[in-house]
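Lab channel / #folding
Pinned by the channel admin:
"Please post every new chain as: sequence first, then the structure tokens as a reply. Keep commentary short and put observations after the output so the thread stays searchable."

First post following the new format, from NK:
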Amino acid sequence: MSNDFNKVILIGTVANNPEITEKDGKRTTIVSVLTESEYTKDGKVVQTKEYTRCKAYGYNLDKCTALKEGSRVRIEGKLHSASWNQGDTKHTMTEVIVDTVVPLG
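Reply from TO:
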């Protein structure tokens, strides 16, 4: 048995109103979460912003669609990567598949 573990916990701000899509009869919602962090480099504090694409299905789809841009949220899930070719360019995308959504304040 492996000790590997694929778990993500994001606490951040909803960057856009959720977008619902349907493909082959399966509904999904996509929401971007903005997180900020800081670290010290050469004695100076550097702040970074990261937008993370989160995808929800089923029960979590309904919870995500209730989120509004600018609201605070905690999302738990697992990382999922996909790649595809478009013409001569290979694209790669990593997103969080949502397991739990908790609106904060």
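NK: The helical segments are 58-65.
TO: also worth noting, The chain has a mean pLDDT of 89.
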